[in-house]
Specification:
Rossmann fold; 4 domains; 7-stranded antiparallel β-sheet; Beta-Lactamase; Heat Shock Protein 90; 21% strand; 5-stranded parallel β-sheet; alpha/beta; 642 residues
């Protein structure tokens, strides 16, 4: 296969026709193509534009003037075609003028054929190399402009030579304004912890000649004063002789990463706090169980007319409030399982008001308008409390100078027409909870993003941006939706729609048996609890109520007693968390001996529903501590009857 060599086309510009023809003949004899001759500047420009030759061989003097220089300048700027000059003059003035046009060669007349060929070949090669360099630079710049990170390049003196669009956006400087300036002027960084000026990575690379990486706590100060957390690295730009020709600095905005890291730290902190709170709650609930059972037992022996009876009632009520406070604290640490049941929203709001008013710090009042016959909803009480608190706190933050929050509840029956103007709505019967304020409000753009995770208008460090996204998720889990209306500087209204629950009886609504009817008749109960005080008081209370109690403090003792008594028990009443084996495993072991043994489990921990499938699936009845004596007697009776 024969590979044909490209024949270069040369335009000859010479006003002496005989000399022009002679040059043409020589060039063609060397293997070049000479498609045309030109004698003046106008012809030269026209033929260059039309023919696009590879090179122009041009006399400086055309028609007695130095028109060749003017033509060469236009060819260079408009067409990027190399020019080689022909001239009979070699004086200093002529040379200085032609230098301005950056010619690729300069040949004195009369022409030497070898010099002519060499000059043309060198000019063509030089131009080809320049074109290749330009293409490489173009590809390089295109790559730098298109990558997602910010890129700045400098020369060996640390002066800016290039910024891509991301770097322009982060620094606030445009390429044309930044070019030639010292990098320290454009890329200003400080230590996030101390606020002091950080070492500029470009300077460090120029000093040491190695890659330099910033620490993880650097803040970029943009031209307009914005503070942006970044990470970056800088590396030397070296030529083929390993000489440093500049520095490339690559950096990125890590605001989102920092936010996620902070959220992770917060989650881990909440997890640790939750674990601690759960353990404290367990011990606290054991104490409250003793108080409640003891008060109940004492009330059996005291007449209602006795002043002591009223004191015992107050002890009971205080114990219940303390237990409720524990539950609310655990809600904040998210350590309670989700449990759907019939919920009265009016009662839920009233129960929260005391705690919520503390959060409002006295500057904000709450006005409530409740529908008197509000339908119940089926919901997880703690989740609904979280929704209400998050929206109320949002309203508080919108009124830094104080104001009023209005909370309204009402039954709503929606038809298809009602749902046309509410996103995600469906016809049906609902309970509507409206929470409104007269605060700063939101514009349309903000309204579109309020339920997005990590979206916040409160500024850095003043909110996680999770509050309303959590609200949205909870309401969706309850098959409801939220309708939000807001105007800037006029306030906001959140309307929560939750499906009405079908009529059903909850455990709280079941009529309790009287204390006397719940007393035992010598039934044998194996009582297992590692808390000595629980064993003592529950043993005393149940013995007083007619049961025969066998108290033990761990699984090993329970197994020994169970075997000794040949499994002759009417009930196993065990704490779930024991030192040697959990109560669920103990129950399974005892059921191997006596498959008909009724089992009732109890615990002061709130996460037993999620940790133990046997409890979650109602395989074993479960009684949450703290409990009253009446609760305990009722559960014992119902478990044994099952």
């Amino acid at each position: 296969m024969v590979i044909s060599k490209k024949i270069n086309r040369i335009l000859v510009a010479e006003d002496e026709n005989i000399i022009a023809m002679e040059i043409k003949d020589r060039l063609e004899g060397m293997g070049y193509d000479v498609p045309a001759l030109a004698t003046n500047k106008r012809e030269i420009i026209e033929k260059v534009a039309d023919l696009q030759p590879d090179l122009v061989l041009m006399d400086i003097m055309l028609d007695g003037h130095m028109d060749g220089v003017d033509a060469a300048e236009e060819i260079r700027t408009r067409f990027d075609i190399p020019v080689v000059y022909l001239t009979a003059y070699s004086d200093e003035n002529t040379l200085q003028r032609v230098k301005i046009t950056e010619p690729y060669g300069y040949i004195l007349k009369p022409l030497d054929e070898r010099e002519l060929r060499n000059t043309i070949e060198i000019a063509l090669y030089k131009h080809w190399m320049e074109q290749k360099v330009k293409e490489d630079e173009q590809r390089f710049h295109t790559t730098l402009k298109s990558i997602g990170d910010a890129v700045i390049t400098t020369d060996v003196k640390g002066r800016i030579t290039f910024l891509n669009s991301v770097a322009e956006s982060l620094t606030g400087w445009k390429q044309e304004k930044a070019s030639g300036k010292r990098v320290n002027t454009i890329f200003k960084i400080v230590n996030a912890k101390t606020g002091s000026v950080a070492k500029n990575p470009v300077d460090m690379v120029l000093q040491k000649g190695v890659v330099y990486t910033l620490s993880d706590n650097c803040i970029l100060i943009s031209k307009d004063g914005n503070e942006i957390p970044i990470d970056d690295s800088a590396a030397p730009i070296k030529d083929d002789k390993d000489q440093i020709r500049g520095v490339v600095l690559v950096f990125r905005d890590i605001t989102e990463r920092k936010r996620l890291e902070e959220h992770l730290r917060q989650s881990q902190k909440m997890e640790a706090v939750g674990t601690l709170a759960s353990g404290v709650a367990h011990d606290f609930n054991n104490i409250m169980t003793i108080i409640q059972v003891s008060a109940d037992l004492a009330m059996v022996d005291v007449k209602e007319s006795d002043p002591i009876f009223q004191s015992l009632v107050e002890i009971q009520e205080s114990a219940e409030r303390a237990s409720d406070l524990t539950r609310k604290l655990l809600y904040f640490s998210r350590k309670q399982p989700m449990e759907y049941k019939s919920v009265n929203v009016n009662e839920t709001i009233e129960g929260l008001l005391y705690m919520v008013m503390r959060l409002l710090e006295g500057k904000i009042t709450i006005n409530t308008i409740f529908e008197s016959e509000l339908n119940p909803i089926r919901a997880d009480l703690r989740s609904i409390e979280q929704v209400l608190i998050n929206i109320i706190i949002n309203a508080r933050d919108a009124m830094p100078d104080g104001g009023q929050i209005n909370i309204r509840t009402e039954n709503k029956i929606l038809n298809s027409k009602d749902c046309e103007h509410m996103s995600e709505s469906r016809p049906g019967e609902y309970v509507c909870i409206s929470i409104s304020d007269h605060g700063s409000g939101m514009d349309g753009e903000t309204l579109q993003h309020i339920f997005e995770p990590f979206f916040s208008t409160k500024g850095q460090g003043k909110g996680t941006g999770l509050g309303l996204s959590v609200v949205y998720g909870i309401i969706k889990q309850h098959n409801g939706w939220i309708d939000v209306k807001s105007k800037l500087n006029r306030g906001s209204e959140f309307k929560i729609y939750l499906p009405t629950a079908r009529e059903e009886s909850s455990g709280d609504e079941v009529e309790r048996d009287t204390f006397k009817s719940l007393k035992g008749s010598g039934e044998r109960i194996l009582l297992v609890d590692d808390e000595d005080s629980i064993l003592e008081y529950v043993d005393k209370a149940l013995t007083r109520c007619g049961y025969r109690i066998y108290p033990v403090s761990n699984s090993k003792e329970a197994l020994n007693v169970f075997k000794k008594e040949k499994g002759n028990f009417n009930l196993l009443l065990s704490d779930v968390v024991l030192p040697d084996q959990d109560g669920v495993e103990l129950a399974y072991q005892l059921l191997n001996y006596n498959p008909n043994l009724p089992v009732l489990l109890s615990s002061g921990y709130y996460d037993c529903y999620t940790r133990y499938p046997a409890i979650q699936d109602n395989e074993f009845p479960f009684l949450q501590k703290p409990y009253t004596l009446n609760d305990l007697l009722h559960m014992i009776r119902s478990t044994m009857e099952q």
